[in-house]
Write a sequence for this structure.
C-alpha cells in the first residue's frame, strides 16, 4: 500500500534535517545529470529557493521539498517561497523528492527518493491553505506589557 500524506508530519527536527539533506542531494544530482550548473542557495536566508540552476543562458530557481511519503498530498511553503514562484513562474521550479527511505532512523541516515519536478511552477491561490499567521503586535502594546511585567517582578 502506498503511503500518502503531508510533509514533515510526526518528525523531530533532526529527522526533518536528514530528510532535507537527502532531498537536496537527490535534487542537485538530478539537475547536474540534465546538464545544469547547480548552486546551493538553501543557506541564504530569505532567498525563497534552494537551488539556482543555469544552462544555455537560462536560470531556474528551484524549491526542493523532501518527504518519506510515496504520494505526498501536501507540502509546506514559506511566504518567501510562494513569492519567489509568483515573481516569475517560468523561472521557478518545485522539485519534490518523495519516498525517501530510512536506513538508520536513530542515526538520521536515509537514502533514495523519487523526483517529481513542476516547471514552470505556477501557484494557484486555491491550492494554498494557511495553517499559521504571524500577528504583529503594536509597539504601545509591547510597552504596556513590559511595564506590567517589571512592576510585578520580585
Amino acid at each position: 500500500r502506498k503511503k500518502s500524506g503531508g510533509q514533515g508530519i510526526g518528525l523531530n527536527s533532526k529527522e526533518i534535517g536528514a530528510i532535507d539533506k537527502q532531498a537536496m542531494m537527490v535534487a542537485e544530482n538530478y539537475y547536474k545529470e540534465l546538464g545544469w550548473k547547480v548552486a546551493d542557495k538553501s543557506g541564504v536566508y530569505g532567498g525563497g529557493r534552494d537551488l539556482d540552476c543555469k544552462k544555455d543562458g537560462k536560470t531556474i530557481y528551484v524549491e526542493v521539498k523532501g518527504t518519506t511519503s510515496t504520494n505526498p498530498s501536501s507540502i509546506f511553503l514559506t511566504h518567501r517561497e510562494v513569492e519567489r514562484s509568483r515573481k516569475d513562474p517560468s523561472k521557478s521550479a518545485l522539485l519534490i523528492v518523495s519516498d525517501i527511505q530510512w536506513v538508520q532512523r536513530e542515526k538520521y541516515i536515509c537514502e533514495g527518493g523519487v523526483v517529481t519536478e513542476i516547471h514552470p511552477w505556477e501557484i494557484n491561490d486555491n491550492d494554498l491553505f494557511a495553517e499559521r499567521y504571524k500577528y504583529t503586535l503594536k509597539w504601545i502594546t509591547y510597552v504596556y506589557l513590559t511595564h506590567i511585567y517589571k512592576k510585578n517582578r520580585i
